[in-house]
Each structure stands twice: as structure tokens, then as C-alpha cells.
Amino acid sequence: MTHAPTQKLSPGLIPRHTTFPLLGSTAAGADTVVAYRKGKAIHAEAYLRDVYTVAQNLPEAAYYLNVCADRYYIAVLLAAVMLRKKISLLPPNTASQTLQSLSERYQDVVLIRDGTNIGAGDQVTQFDGAISFEKLLEAPFTGPTPNPEFPSEQLIGILFTSGSTGEPSANPRTWGALCAGVKAEAQALLLPELCDHEIRRGIAVLGTVPAQHSYGLESTLALPLQNGYALVADQSFYPADIANALALLPRPRVLVTTPFHLRLLINDGAINLPKVDLIVSATAPLSPQLAAQAEAAFSAPVREIYGCTEAGQIASRRTLDGDMWTLFPNVCLEKRGEAIWVRGGHVGAARMLSDVIEIKSDHQFLLHGRVGDLINVAGKRTSLAHLNFHLNSIPGVEDGVFMLPDATPDNTDGDCVVRLTAYVVTRALSPAQILSALRTRIDPVFLPRPVRLVNELPRNQTGKLTHGAINALRASDNASAADCAL
Amino acid sequence: MSLPTASPDSAPTALSPASALSPVELVLAEIIVKTLNLEVAPNEIDPEAPIYGEGLGLDSIDILEISLAISKQYGFQLKSDDENNKTIYKSLRNLSAHIEKSRTK
CB distance B85–A264 less than 8 Å? Predict the structure, then answer.
């Protein structure tokens, strides 16, 4: 990619003790469109009123578990919790065990959900004391509603990734890091060039990823609010929903999505794809072939974002320009032993990356896959150790191990979703019972398909499954490679 | 309409109980099994069991994969604002009935 950051912009530098407004400085006008929801524009004034209303009506608690599905409601709730100087928890999924585990770890927590029905999407499981978001809007706040300023070091919330044990790892994200990151993102994606300054119209940003994940929080929620653009509240589940919702938005409009969704949109062939002004993809590498098809089908450039939950987004590229990634302004990489660390700019203190990275220059690098046993399914990251921990915690499982299918040309890019295989030693359980037990413990995308029952796992004397033993097990099971050719 | 080719071990057999899948439901079951690489024979799927979560055990990614296969096979797109959305995935039977009502080919 050729657009090196310009010198006059240094959004990555966060002065100490600074603040960022809830709505970015360019979005100060009361008539700025903050969101589109069910076909209607919501202006800044109405958004701020809702934020103050929810802040007033929130029940007392230390933590708020935000499992809303409506992106506008999520944005209102996050801001309301910040106004109350409390902390939002953004769960990685709505599996009952995840919510249970978070509520045990963070005492004094309230779960807030909304009544949004997401196509055939994941349902929030029963949770004692859950509060309906819509109830929190019922008694409107009547005082003044200025655009609040929040200190950089205040938390927008805590994001979670699967740890190496059963417990999700907490990743607190500061308001300053989020705001500076999405201001840098707008520059890296060349978004200001899309804005029509004559009519002062912002950009409509439609996302197909949840706002509770790092990429979704940044690119579908904070990016619009900090840069004077509009987010799209409604969930678009099916490819036809995405196409219809895009077509109804004013231009310029941006689609924030994943390689998986792009493949569904492009491969259908019968969906009328509207023109958009930019496509943003992340969560897994996009193949150049699919990027080319998407650019042609939507008449728009496709740019990818690279990042992780620990550090947030740090780089971008236009897929068709080649493999090289360009770091956001002021962000730099450094090699420490075998590991690559990122620091500076909106990232701040150094954080280790879990990808194999080849540094090519001060601001460019190549990406060569995941380190160790980390895996990525449908944009969700976990480790095999985490999955194995849960598998072996099921009563009746004597031994068990998760495995990735062999890499094939079809599954090395992120366009297809690769499913895992589990090998299990059990005398008590059927594959269906194992799946049922796993469903309460892990995110559904990691559920094994298939579950293979075996007499024993070929562990060596120290109890390890060697690479050779794993390959032998896999060779005896040639059905494990996911067929994702369509 | 061309039927998807079923693998030998998942081909329907004459032993299926009469109360099980109807012919159109069986075609849909074959499409689902083939699309998702499921470890179940199409004629063994309970037409009354839930498709999503418990039951057939599919997740939202599977549902999206199936929506693409349905579009290609039956010539229409599943949409979230369909009034039947809450019931469509209650069972393979409901999904099949929805397809028969909406198909263009």
C-alpha cells in the first residue's frame, strides 16, 4: 500500500492527562447524524439525550455486562456506563458458561440485553437478574446534555480473549487508546477523502461483526462516533440483509466485514450488490482472488485491518496492492528474541503479538500466520490448550484433544471457515453428549466437527502428544479436512 | 432441478421409517449434510428436532452457509425480516416448508 501517513497528522500521540469527547470534535453539531436505525437517522442531540437517560436509570453496580445486539444501544450503554464512571464488560460470546464465569469473576455485575432478534443468530441464554435495555430508556433525562469529555485513561470497557486455561483473559481498553486508534484508522483507510465537504455529509458505516469484539468496537462503533460518521444500528445477518441494508444507506457508505461474509455475498451470484465507497475486512487474511471479486462487485477498494484484542488495530493494507502491511502513524514493531512486540502511537506501552511477523521497514511488515497453538475460527481466536482444558473438564471424558485439519489451499486464507476435530477417549459418552457439554463451555464456532471416539490417545511417556503421533491419528482419519469448496 | 450428489454412506435407504423425512425434506437434509460436512446420514435427521443449537447442533456460521446453498438450489434468499423467522429454524420440517413456499426454482 502506498499511502504513507502524512506528517501533519499525528493522532497516535496521546498527550498525558488529555481527554476525548464522546462524539469526536468534528461531530460537535447537534444535527450530525450519529446512527441509522430502522431506516431513520438519529442525530447527536438524540444520542446524547439517550446516553444521559440510560446513565440516570442504570441500576447501581460496579460492572455492566453488555450483551445488547443493537449497535446503537451498545453505543448508548457504553457511554452511559462511562458517565457513571463504572466499567463495561464486553463478552466474547453469549455461551452460558462465559456469562456465568464473568459474573463470578466480577462481583456486583448487571447483565443488560436488548430485545433485538438477530435472524437465526446466537441467543442470549437465561441469566438471573438480566435487565432489558429498552426499560432503561423509559424515564427520559430532562437536564442539559453536553457532549461529555472522558479522560484518556478511563476504560471504555474490558474485552476478553480465550486464555490458555478455562478463564477468558481480560483486556482493558482505555478511552484514549480507542479514540486515538480510530482517528488513525480513518486516516489509514483514507476516509476523509470520501466525505463530501460541500454538503458536510458524513459516512455511513455498516458492520457485520459484533461490537463487543475489538475489531467491531473500533471499526463499526468508535470509528464513526469519533470521526463524525454514522454507525448502523441494525444487525444484518444474511447476505441479502447486508445488501439491502447497504442499498438503503446514503453514500458515502462503508461496509465493515470479514472474509467469510464477503465470500457469501460474492458467491451467491443472485444478490444485487449495491455500490459502496469502501470495504474494510479483518479477523482473518483475505485472499487476493476474493478481494478482486469484491472490488469489482461493489465498485470499491477493499482494505484490510490488522490487529489483536491486546493492542487493538495497528496496520492496514489494500489487499490488491500486495502482501505488505503499513503500520498506523507512530506505531512501531520491535523484535525481542523470537517474539514481535508493538508499541507507540495509540498502542502506548509495548505488547506482544501472537502472529509470526517479518519486519520489512520502520512502518511495513509481512504476516505469516499464528504462533504456537493459537487458532482462529471465523475471526474468533482461542488456543488449543483452552479448548482441551474444557474438553477434559467434562465428566466422563477420560482424555481428549482438539486438532486443526491439515492446511489445504482452501483453508489457509480466511475466506472459508475451518472446523476443528476432537479425538476423545470415553466409555460413558456419545459424540452428541460431548457436543452438548461443550456447547455450554466454549464458543459455538469452536465446537468440533466431527467428534471422533478413540480407544486411547497416542501419548508418549511424558504424556505428550507428539507431532508424529498427531499426524498418525489424523492420517487414520482422512475425513477431518473441512471441505469448503462451493 | 439437479439433486446434490450424496456420498454412498449417506444415501437414503428404503429402511427409513415412514413417519420420517418427506422427499423434499430429504433433499434439503442432503444439501445441509453436504454443505456442512456433517457426520450424520440425511435420512437420520429428525425432521422435528431444532436445527439451531441443540438438536442438529448448528451455529450461526452454519446457518449462513446453508443460506448460500439454499439461494443456489432454490433461487431465493433468506432474510432476517421475514415474519416466519422465529419458527423457520425450529425444525428441518419448518425450514423445508418455508423453502417450498418461497422457492423460485
Answer: no
Whole-Å CA distances, A437 to A97, A149, A431, A449? 10, 46, 10, 14
Strand, coil or helix: A68 = coil
Cβ atoms within 10 Å, residue A128:
7
How far is B2 from A307, CA to CA, in rounded Å?
Answer: 44
Q: Which residues of B touch A (CB under 8 A)?
A: 36-39, 52-54, 57, 59-61, 63-65, 67-69, 71-72, 75, 77-81, 85-86, 88-89
pLDDT tens track for A222-250: 999 999 999 999 988 899 999 999 999 99
Q: What is the DSSP string of B51-90?
A: SBSTTT-B-HHHHHHHHHHHHHHHS----TT-TTHHHHTT
Q: Cβ contacts of residue A9 below 8 Å, gap of 6+?
A: A187, A329
Torsion-angle region of A39 (φ positive above 0: left; ψ -120 to 50: alpha; else: beta) = left
Nearest chain A alpha carbon to B64:
A238
ipTM of the prediction: 0.75
Q: Tell me the C-alpha distance between A139 and A94, whole Å.
A: 28
